User: What shape does this take?
Amino acid sequence: MIICSGLSKNFAGTQALDDISLQVRRGDIFGLVGPDGAGKTTLIRTICGLMKPDKGEVRLLGCPPGAQDKIRSALGYMPQRFSLYGDLTVMENIIFFGSMYGMSKKVIIERAEEILTITGMNSFQGRLADKLSGGMKQKLALTSALITRPEILILDEPTYGVDPGSRKEFWKILYQLNQEGLTILVSTPYMDEAELCRQVAFINAGRIKAIDSPTGLRQAFGHQVLELCLDSRDPAILNDIPGLLDISFYGYKYKVVVDNVLSAAEIIKQHLQQKGIDLISMRVVSPNMEDVFVALAEEEVAKWNMQ
Ligand SMILES: Nc1ncnc2c1ncn2[C@@H]1O[C@H](COP(=O)(O)OP(=O)(O)O)[C@@H](O)[C@H]1O
Ligand SMILES: [Mg+2]
Assistant: This one.
């Protein structure tokens, strides 16, 4: 559905995209996951044909490169900063958006009602956009992006700054749309959302660090994770223990990344004993996407240091 080959883009010395190649297949929920400034928006704008790459090409729906304009209505795009008219109602906003695609008012309203039912917004048709909550504004933007019944939906950080409950709800809607046949490309800085995608491309500093399913990424992780509860709330308490690759503290538990859980567990116990701190519990947990991403980012730092 989407094939990017060797995309590069430079902005006055900043390499926003550095030789990006990826493929989104029909029926995918494909996540572009990476921190702020990684290049997600630049990549999405290039895929949508809103920006020209310095190098490389994009093919959408089997069309030749650069033909995005010809398949505009097959492409639903929800930009990172979408604009709604605050003094228009939900339905008026959708009608305005749909009419830009030359759709008749009757067809727009029919389709809008269908989509607003899926997004749970039907009873808010007459509400002014300004009076919507953050989560509802995102849903209205989503409805507008779907009005042409696109085959591919491209969303740039649709849940940024939205409360956790609304984020969950938004993802449920994406799953439902995907089940109905929509191919989805979505960018996010949230690692927990990476777990919800079928394919994930980790992107950092304009480069793809890994592409795989969440399960595949976890399997390739190559380290193990221990979760500890201690009779301590000191975030630095484990810092001087040798052999711990990464330590994170979550207020009541610690997570450490190690190469060998058995020997690490022994060393941790000894150190805590010496410090007189009780180990309440220790267990092996499966790595989450954040662990995987941190490890990939650190590999990169290590490579740089060796150069
Ligand atoms: N129009 C632009 N002019 C100059 N620099 C830009 C422009 N757009 C993006 N950048 C730079 O390119 C990099 C990638 O940005 P962006 O694609 O917006 O990342 P993300 O969406 O992952 O936060 C950043 O360093 C950003 O400052
Ligand atoms: Mg962005």
